[in-house]
Design a protein that fits this description.
Helices cover 57% and strands 3% of the residues. The protein is mainly alpha-helical. The protein has a two-stranded antiparallel ribbon. It has a single domain, classed as Cobalamin adenosyltransferase-like (Hypothetical Protein Ta1238, Chain: A, Up-down Bundle). It starts with 11 loop residues before the first strand and ends in a 14-residue tail after the last helix.
């Protein structure tokens, strides 16, 4: 089977429903950003920070694939499609709460730096925020989008806490934002 079809050479692509749309379509922006996030999550897993974090991130990757497929189905009704459910959001909240218990309370904004893994977690956070914004832009065009938006919102919080937890595990001092720093 060839990987290329040449069907997108003129700037269009097919959704799961078979409908062809421009590659700059808002819907494609949404699930393309989710796909980009998933790739960066894989990069964070490759940093091998901890077995627990890698396992969690593997579950997140599968949920992101589910979200991408839900966004790409374009209204196609199919009972076999994966769902994002409130239990998925609760799971993220449990992970966030567990990590947060081990962290010192924040008194300042922190800069996304310290190590490669910390920085990748922050990249995941910011891409996740963009995926959330792109998904909000298609609201009303995808069934069940509200829970997808909630999941992405909570997931960005998870990545922030992951970055802080990685700093703790790697014994790296978080870098506070210095609003008074002049060049």
């Amino acid at each position: 089977m060839k990987i290329y079809t040449k069907s997108g050479d003129k700037g269009t692509t097919s959704l799961v429903s078979g409908r062809r749309v421009g590659k700059d379509e808002t819907l494609l922006e949404a699930y393309g950003t989710v796909d980009e996030l998933n790739s960066f999550v894989g990069l964070l897993i490759a940093e091998q920070v901890s077995a627990v974090l890698s396992e969690q991130l593997g579950l997140v990757q599968n949920k992101l694939f589910n979200i991408g497929s839900l966004l790409a189905k374009d209204g196609l009704q199919n009972e076999d499609y994966p769902r994002i459910v409130s239990r998925d959001i609760s799971q993220l909240e449990q992970w966030i709460d567990s990590y947060n218990e081990e962290l010192t309370p924040l008194k300042n904004f922190i800069l996304p730096s310290g190590s490669k893994a910390i920085s990748i977690a922050h990249v995941c956070r910011t891409i996740c925020r963009r995926a959330e914004r792109r998904t909000i832009a298609i609201d009303g065009r995808v069934d069940g989008i509200e829970i997808i938006i909630q999941y992405l919102n909570r997931l960005s919080d998870y990545f922030f806490i992951c970055a802080r937890s990685i700093a703790r595990l790697q014994k790296i001092q978080e870098v506070n934002w210095n609003k008074n720093l002049n060049a």
